Amino acid sequence: PSRRCSGHRAARGAGRLRSMHPTLVLVLLATLGGCAMPVREPPLQGLAPVTALQWRNFMDEKLRGQVSLGEVKGGDAEAEGWLRATLDRVWGSRALRKPVADALEEQLDQLRLLANAAQGGRYVLDVEILSLEAGGLPFGSEGEAELRYRLREAGEGGRLLFEKRLRSAGDLMPGLLWPPARQRAAKESALRANLLRLGAELARLRV
Length: 207
Fold this sequence. Notes:
single chain, 207 residues, alpha+beta, four-stranded mixed beta sheet, 6 helices, 4 strands
């Protein structure tokens, strides 16, 4: 085809894009951006097997199989609607309660602290996400997280055994080129570091 034909086709394509509704353009760009992102591992995971095996031996016997996960507060609710869910998948920068709760349950289970769901435990761990941020340059994001943990006896008026506000920083993410993906990964890294600090605190706790 001639250069003139190619130019006409390009002009027609640009005209169609200009005539599209702004929301559709946003979704199209978000989808294209998401396709350019690398496939990620699940955002939050439990402890590394070696770490869990080592720390398991330091846990107080009174806590073994006796800790239930209570309320996880803070952060944001899950996205509702296909548009919000699509944008969250691409630009995902929110702190979601469910992934944090799932990672905490997995960690408690690895440390042999998690109580049987049907019977419940003698103790309850409540969690609050106080802050979750990503700063730095667009191509050099670092995450910071602050969470509050409270371990108490089950039941109303139960004795408070442990309360800590833990701050943690996420690693620099040099391998991701898409800036929103770098910010999201940095926040997830900060959350993982925070859960790691919780594990160390529980290993020292004696009730």
